[in-house]
């Protein structure tokens, strides 16, 4: 994760684009990237992160020169990894969502923004994969609640009016298992394109 963050900072530092990066036009776009997802809470030892991906659509609605509202909808592979080194046991608890965040975006400098907002997650798949590196080994489960309310916050950099990179952290306020202090925790990094 350190290398991804360093690459993100390096891209921001090196990129010098003379074109205006903020657009006063309504824009739609697509984005995708990588997730490092796990769960956290008092009732569960924090397991290793499951590495997966996200992909979806967004719209940016300018309100002023520095402020935009950005609704999104995207598929997100979440869950966590279960490993036991001495027994060489490796499994993934795969929980996939359709996430719908409503992001408030503030441009600090030309192209560079901070953003945050609520996220509504709808579970579409849940399984325990005992053989995550091959086909098969999947066991359907039904332990995770169908809805997750979270808060997303992150940084983004828009290059010109179309291309952007972003890094974001999302914490789930909802208990993912009924009456248990276990919450989603996802770090994501990706790229996108505005049309």
UniProtKB/TrEMBL annotation:
Highest taxon, organism lineage: Bacteria
Keyword annotations from UniProtKB, A to Z: Signal
Repeat found in the keyword field: no
Gene3D superfamilies: 2.40.160.20
Signal peptide: 1-19
Record-linked SUPFAM superfamilies: OMPA-like
Domain Outer membrane protein beta-barrel: 19-177
InterPro entries referenced in this protein's UniProt entry, alphabetically: Beta-barrel_OMP_2, OMP/PagP_B-barrel
Official protein name in the record: Opacity protein
């Amino acid at each position: 994760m350190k290398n991804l963050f360093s690459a993100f900072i390096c891209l921001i530092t090196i990129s010098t684009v003379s074109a205006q990066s903020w657009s006063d036009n309504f824009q739609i776009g697509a984005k995708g990237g990588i997730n490092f997802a796990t769960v956290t809470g008092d009732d569960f030892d924090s397991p290793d992160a499951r590495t997966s991906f996200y992909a979806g659509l967004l719209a940016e609605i300018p309100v002023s020169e520095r402020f935009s509202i950005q609704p999104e909808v995207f598929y997100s592979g979440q869950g966590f990894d279960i490993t036991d080194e001495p027994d060489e046991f490796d499994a993934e608890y795969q929980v996939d969502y359709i996430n719908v965040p409503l992001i408030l975006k503030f441009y600090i400098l030309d192209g560079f923004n901070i953003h945050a907002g609520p996220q509504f997650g709808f579970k579409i798949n849940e399984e325990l994969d005992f053989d995550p590196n091959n086909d098969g080994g999947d066991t359907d489960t039904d332990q995770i609640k169908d809805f997750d309310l979270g808060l997303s916050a992150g940084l983004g950099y828009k290059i010109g009016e179309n291309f952007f990179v972003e890094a974001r952290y999302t914490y789930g306020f909802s208990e993912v298992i009924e009456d248990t202090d276990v919450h989603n925790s996802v770090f994501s990094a990706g790229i996108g394109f505005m049309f």
